[in-house]
Amino acid sequence: MHEKGKFDPNVPPCTRCGCFITDDVGALQCDRCKATDKWKCADCLCISLEVYDGLEECKEICWMCSDCTGKVLEKKGGKDKVLAMLEKLMDKICGLEERLQQKVDVKKWEELESNMNKWLQQKADLKMLGGT
Ligand SMILES: [Zn+2]
Ligand SMILES: [Zn+2]
């Protein structure tokens, strides 16, 4: 029997705050080891749910657990790699936020444009009427 609210080994806790990563909780799994218990929730990743939703179409965004970060750091030049990865991650998240922002603007612009076209069409119709 599967009861709600009971500990479920299929529902891992966030490695930072310990909250359970259920379907309602946005979270990223460690991209390196893909361990089933290495998750970090969107809250701890400091990303909004809006951005998190956008992440689904942005597969290159990843997170690494502390074990993996440590392992990568041990390697020569690993630190640079991690820093570069973090920078890329932040760039992606920033870019994503911008894109989400733009989505709204683009919609507004399209609305404006279609209104403009309608208006121009009306003017053209009037002109045609006036010409005949
Ligand atoms: Zn958390
Ligand atoms: Zn890992």
Number of helices: 3
Reported for the largest beta sheet, the result is:
2 strands, antiparallel
Radius of gyration (Å): 24 Å
Helix content: 40-55%
Using DSSP, what is the number of strands?
A: 2
**SSE succession:** EEHHH
Beta content: under 5%
- Number of structural units classed as domains: 1
Low-pLDDT stretches are none
Assembly of the depicted chains: single chain
Widest sheet: strand order?
A: 1-2
Q: How far is the first residue's CA from the last residue's CA? A: 80 Å
Question: What would the average pLDDT be, to the nearest integer?
Answer: 78
Shape descriptor: elongated
Structural class: mainly alpha
Provide a descriptive summary of the structure in words.
This protein has 132 residues and is mostly helical. The protein has one domain. Helices cover 53% and strands 5% of the residues. It contains 3 helices and 2 strands, in the order E-E-H-H-H. It has a two-stranded antiparallel ribbon. The longest helix is centred in the last third of the chain and has 54 residues, at 78-131. The radius of gyration is 24 Å and the shape is elongated. The termini are far apart. One zinc ion (ZN) binds next to strand 2.
Please specify the SSE layout and strand pairing.
Elements lengths: L26 E3 L9 E3 L7 H7 L10 H9 L3 H54 L1
Antiparallel strand pairs: 1-2
Helix pairs in contact: 1-3, 2-3
The chain binds zinc ion (ZN) (2 copies).
One zinc ion (ZN) binds next to strand 2.
